[in-house]
Structure formats: C-alpha cells, structure tokens
Design a protein that fits this description.
Blueprint lengths: L8 E6 L2 H10 L3 E5 L3 E6 L2 E7 L15 E5 L2 H13 L4 E8 L7 E7 L5 E7 L7
Parallel strand pairs: 1-4, 5-8
Antiparallel strand pairs: 2-3, 3-4, 6-7, 7-8
Protein name: VOC family protein
Organism: Virgibacillus sediminis
Length: 132
C-alpha cells in the first residue's frame, strides 16, 4: 500500500516548455518549478518533470507499451475528470471506453495526448481490488 510520505516521479520529453506548461496547468496540475530545460508539476500528488527534448518526441504515439496516468478509486472523481477534459477541450487520443467488459478487471478509461505526444490514461475500476 502507498505511504503518504512518498511521491512517485516520472520524467518525460517535451518539445516546447510554454506549450507543455499550459497543457498540464489546464489539466489541473500545479506548476512546481520551471527552468530553461524543464518544467516540474504536481501531477495529482506525484511529480512529473517534462524535459525539453524536441528531438526525442514520439511522432506516432501508441497506447501500448508507453503511457502514464491516474487510476481513480472514486467513480465520481473519474466522471469529473472526464467532464473537465471535455469542457476544456483537452485533446483526446482515445475517447472514453470500457475495457475488459464483463470481467472482474472491467474498467472505464480514456486517453489524452499532451503537446509532445505523451499519452495520459485516466481510469476507474469497478472492483477496487483490481487496481494493482
């Protein structure tokens, strides 16, 4: 189980710092730090650092094997995130869908794509025991 005194850290590439900062702040992430070569965010309680790497952008992103995101434990929070993404016209990579329908691991999910083609997944499992 996660301890509240630990923060997960993820570093990803970005092609433009201003565009990246605007996207993640619009998503609701707090800008923590900004330097000439990176921006750091509070990404739903964890740390995401976007390093300026315009030559390392995935031009044709695919959901698998590389993406990151949030798994909500509360359905209402998932629904709010989806409504917010729609309202703010955030760019969807995959519209909302149900995965593994009818199985114990069934979950709701949608994917957003950031300005550097990093894919972000937001999901909610009907059975909380399937989160891990």
């Amino acid at each position: 189980m996660r301890k509240t005194d630990k923060v997960f850290h993820l570093a990803i590439p970005c092609k433009d710092l201003e565009e990246t900062a605007e996207f993640y702040q619009k998503l609701g992430c707090k800008l923590a730090r900004k330097y000439d070569d990176r921006v750091t965010f509070d990404f739903f309680g964890d740390q995401v650092v976007c390093h300026l790497s315009p030559n390392h952008i995935d031009e044709q992103p695919r959901m698998y094997p590389r993406h990151f995101g949030i798994t909500f434990l509360n359905r209402e929070e998932y629904d709010q995130a989806l409504e917010y993404a729609i309202k703010e016209e955030l760019p969807f990579f995959k519209k909302p869908m149900v995965r593994f329908e009818g199985k114990r691991e069934e979950h709701l999910t949608f994917f957003l794509v950031d300005p550097a083609n990093n894919l972000l997944e937001f999901k909610y499992y009907h059975d909380a025991a399937m989160v891990y």
